Structures are given as structure tokens and as C-alpha cells.
Amino acid sequence: MGYLSQKKKLANNRELLTVSLWIELICCTVLLFFRESTVASFISNYAFQLYIYALIVLAFAVINRFYWQSGGLLLGVFILFLIIGQGGDVFFTTEPMGLQELKVMYQSDVASLSESEKKVSKTQTDIAGIIQSLNKNTTWQTPRTALNLSSRADDKNLIMTPHPIIRSGEVLLSEKNRAGFAELKINNMEQIIFITLDFSKTTRQEQNVALNNLAEFINMQDSPVIVFGDFGQEAWSKNFLAFKDKTGLEVKNKILLKKMKCGYNPFSIPSINLLAYKDFGVKEMAFLSSRENPHQPLIMTLNY
Q: Which range, of 28-32, 187-191, 211-215, averages the lowest pLDDT?
């Protein structure tokens, strides 16, 4: 490569890094000082993707010895990490806390309970949160199963378990959002309340109303609570952080980008979370294959 070509490439790289640096710093400024704005809400949705992009650009800047750009990018990376870190662990799940295990599953847009039953039985899942598909052409029938179902089979939010259900039902949290719950007695464990939900198809305002009402419902319970579902918003959003403060629950999983049949969706909002109290940790976590559903079941093994 000639001198002029090399100089032109260097100038192009410097220009690219400078633009990336300004974008990163502007986004960080909006997130820090204009958090109530619509723009900040949009940027917050994709703060994790912005963080990953900033890490890649920072590595490129360091390798190519653009040191002052590297310093600015490093500052942005640090700010973004602090913001998304408020929601929970970024790259790792919460460490296991005890020897007892509890296997839980979550799947949305389920069209067949019999298929879910097979997965629960095959994986020996203790509790499964099942969200009914809204597609009117799907068949939603009660399977002939030895598993216990919460509430009615035509409810949108169901819980499937081999353990005895003490009480169960659906809670109306907002005009368009409900959550399914079940109180169970599992082995040597005290009674536990499992809640499953899917807020992903409603507006942010609806989600915030539902979170406030869900916090009230949780605080009325005497038994330990586990919430597993799609909250429709990132774990570091203002209202989600307020929900955690009110309930004392913690996000136990690392940041998850929804996994579809083709793999992880890098442009999705990381809104699927499992929340529980401090005594719970995550031993294993995996997406299961699913031919009949583009939203693959997520299964976690908890320790307590």
C-alpha cells in the first residue's frame, strides 16, 4: 500500500472513530441528564447494543493507536456499563446460593398445550409459565395430562407443574396486561408463588401501570415470589428499577436477547427476566429447540 493510500485510510479511520465517539457521548448525555424524554427512552431500549458496539469500536481504536479517541470511548463504555448494570448482571447469571434445585421454564406465543406438556415432562421442569398465542387460528385446548394447570385452560397466562397447586389464577394489572400466578408446595421447600407474564405487546405506559400494580400484589404475599416473563422493557428503565425497589426482587439472569429459530435477535429489547429474592441463584440457563414456535422456551435451573 502506498503512502498516500495509507494516509487516506488513516484519515478515514480517524473520522469514523470521531463520529462513533460523538454518537456514544451524545447518547450517554441524553441517558444521564434527559432521562424523562422520549429520545432517552428509545436509546435506553438499545443501551446494551450500544454498549457492545462501543466495546468493539474501543478495541479497534486501541489496536490502531488512536489514543485520545480511545479515552473518550472508554468513558462512554464505563457510563453505559453503569446504566445497564443497574438492572442486574450484564454477562453472567447470579451465582447459585444453595444445594436445592428448582427448574423453571418460560415460553410465549404457545399454540398447543400438549406440546408444552411434552417439554415440561421431558425436561422434568418444576414450574412452567405458558403464554397463550394471540393468533385466532391456533388451537388452545386442555391436554389430557397428569400435570396441574393454574386457572382455566382458556386464560392467556397459564402455569403448568407436576406439583400440587394450593391456589392460582390471573391478576388484572392494567387494561391490557394480566399475569398468571400459582402458589405451590415443592418438595422440602416452603410454599412458593410463581408469576408468569408477557407485557411485550402493550405500550410502555400500560407496562408501567402493570408494574406498579404487580408490585402491590407481590407485597401482599407471605410466601417467596418468583416472577418469570417478558416485561416489555429493559431492566434498567426507571420504572423497572422502581419495581425492584418496591418488591426487593432481583434480576437473576444475564442480559438476554430473544432467541428465535434463526438464533439470537440482536435488535430486540432485552426484556425477558427472572426475578427472585436474594436466596436464589441460577445454576444453568438454556433455550430449548422448538419447531412449532418461533419463540423458543427458556429454561433455568435455580439453586436456593
A: 187-191
Q: Give the chain's domains with CATH numbers.
A: 3-85 (no CATH), 101-303 (3.60.10.10)
Lowest mean pLDDT among 14-28, 203-217, 253-267: 253-267
Tens digits of per-residue pLDDT, 103-113?
999 998 887 77
- β 192-198/165-172 pair status: unpaired
Give the up-direction half-sphere exposure of residue 11: CA atoms within 13 A in the CB hemisphere: 6
Beta strands, E only, the chain = 101-110, 127-132, 148-149, 157-161, 165-172, 178-184, 192-198, 225-230, 250-251, 259-260, 263-264, 272-276, 281-287, 298-303
> Taking all residues of the chain, what is their mean pLDDT, rounded to a whole number?
86
Q: Rounded distance, CA 251 to CA 87, Å?
A: 7
Distance CA 154, CA 277 (A): 31
Contacts within 8 Å (CB) and 24+ apart, 35-42: 35/238, 36/238, 41/204, 41/237
CA distances from 126 to 13, 161, 165, 174, 180 (A): 53, 6, 12, 29, 16
Percent of the chain with pLDDT over 70: 87
Q: What's the one-letter identity of residue 74?
A: L
> Which pTM was predicted?
0.89
Cell numbers representing residue 139 in the block? 388451537
- E-only strand ranges, 83-177: 101-110, 127-132, 148-149, 157-161, 165-172
Give yes or no for residue 183 having a pLDDT over 60.
yes
Q: What are phi and psi of 267, to 5 degrees?
A: -100, 10
Q: How far apart are the first and last CA of the chain?
A: 61
Burial (CB count <10 Å: 0-12, 13-18, 19+), residue 75: middle
